[in-house]
UniProtKB/TrEMBL annotation:
Pfam families: M20_dimer, Peptidase_M20. Residues 189-262 form the Peptidase M20 dimerisation domain. It comes from Celeribacter persicus. Transmembrane segments: none annotated. Its cofactor is Mn(2+). GO terms for biological process: diaminopimelate biosynthetic process. The Mn(2+) ion enhances activity. Keywords: Hydrolase, Manganese, Metal-binding. The keyword Isomerase does not apply. It comes from the Bacteria. One of its GO terms (molecular function) is metal ion binding. This is Hippurate hydrolase. Mn(2+) binds at C105, H107, E140, H166, H364.
Length: 396
């Protein structure tokens, strides 16, 4: 890949891509509401003469770019489009104009990078096969990837391999990390409901006190990771919400505890569900209470296929050099519904550095912002993946 030539051409329309990113950021749309965003994507694709299909999975868009060299192989490049349900704390000109909605994870940048790559590839289509640029809705908890699959994504737009790219604050601009095998965790939600009789707080001997069961349960949850999960397997159980009580002098008759489970191995996932139930029932029984577990499995672990990981590493090295690419980075306990795509077709997800300075805050913080300086790196990476998979001449 002639990286300098590719980056030079991407630079000629960098300002335009930044304007697109800022436009999307100012008008954030959350799960399955991405009507304006998908319309913007389709308008730009049409402007550049790229075939586009909208409405997949609700608001998803697929752009089709066919190579002019004979070839039957097809690859999918995926970017998510949705925002988060949270307020933005930034004060810059392109801050969110919609209260309670905010591109706090950088999906506005992901969409922009794939648009830039699609524009380049449509003008340099000297490759053998087909590129499907997948603009996906509802990654933030809405399983938009699964919705697109159920809507016939891979039937209408066959892919031999699929790839995903996500920004990562804390990594230098232009650096990439990935790994073969499990990379991101499952994202399961669980709720334990503890029930006692309740009663007067001044006469606890005449009640079954659910708060004691709660205390034993919380401590017991911590022992699941340290004493049941194999030491070399990563797993997390965290409690995010506890609801109980109405007055300081009333023992609550019901307590709900809501949390998340994260791991990378299906066997560990089964173990966490089983042990949560066992610990809840045992903790409740000690205090004469009862317990009920509701365990909802969310996104599965994201597992990168070895061959596609090799392709992704080679593509990233071509863009940034071997010293900027870590192909054996540790697993991460975040989750991404690209995992559903990777269950259907062999695939790989990479992380691209969003900047390692103090100004680049972590995803999902109210003061987060996507770094416009990485747009060319992300677009060049997509172009490099196409070269690795289908062959590509920058002079095409």
């Amino acid at each position: 890949m002639q990286t300098e030539q590719v980056m030079a051409e991407l630079a000629t329309y960098h300002d335009e891509m930044v304007a697109i990113r800022h436009d999307i950021h100012r008008h954030p749309e959350t799960c399955y509401e991405e009507h304006r965003t998908s319309a913007l994507v389709c308008e730009r694709l049409a402007e550049w003469g790229i075939e586009a299909h909208n409405g997949l999975g609700g608001t998803g868009v697929v752009a089709v770019i066919r190579g002019k060299v004979p070839g039957n192989r097809a690859v999918g490049l995926r970017a998510d489009m949705d925002a988060l349900n949270m307020d933005e704390a930034n004060g810059f000109a392109h801050r969110s104009t919609i209260p309670g909605k905010f591109h706090g994870c950088g999906h506005d940048g992901h969409t922009t990078m794939l648009l830039a790559a699609a524009r380049y590839l449509s003008q340099h289509n000297d490759f053998a096969g087909t590129v499907h640029c997948i603009f996906q809705p509802a990654e933030e908890g809405g399983a938009g990837a699964l919705a697109m699959i159920r809507d016939g994504l891979f039937d209408r737009f066959p892919c031999d391999a699929v790839y995903s790219l996500h920004n990562k604050p804390g990594l230098p601009v232009g650096s990439f990390i990935t790994r073969p095998g499990p990379q991101l965790a499952c994202a399961d939600e669980w709720t334990v409901t503890i029930r006692g009789t309740g009663g007067h707080a001044g006469a606890p001997d005449k009640a079954t006190d659910a708060t004691i069961a709660l205390a034993h349960f919380i401590l017991g949850v911590q022992s699941i990771i340290s004493r049941n999960v194999p030491a070399l397997d990563a797993a997390v159980l965290s409690i995010g919400v506890i609801r109980a009580g109405s007055s300081h002098n009333v023992l609550p008759s019901e307590i709900t505890v809501n949390g998340t489970a994260r791991c990378h191995d299906p066997r560990v996932r089964d173990l966490l569900e089983t042990r949560l139930g066992e610990v809840a029932h045992a903790a409740a029984a000690m205090s004469g209470c009862t317990a009920e577990l509701d365990y909802a499995r969310g996104y599965p672990p994201l597992v990168n296929a070895p061959e596609q990981t090799d392709v992704a590493i080679a593509a990233a090295v071509a863009v940034s050099g071997a010293d900027k690419v870590d192909g054996m980075s540790p697993p991460i306990n975040a989750a991404d519904d690209f995992a559903y795509f990777a269950l259907e077709r062999p695939g790989c997800n990479v992380m691209l550095g969003n900047g390692d300075g103090p100004e680049w805050k972590n995803n999902h913080r109210p003061d987060y912002d996507f770094n416009d300086a990485i747009i060319p790196y992300g677009a060049a990476y997509w172009i490099s993946v196409v070269e690795q998979e289908l062959g590509l001449s920058p002079k095409g």
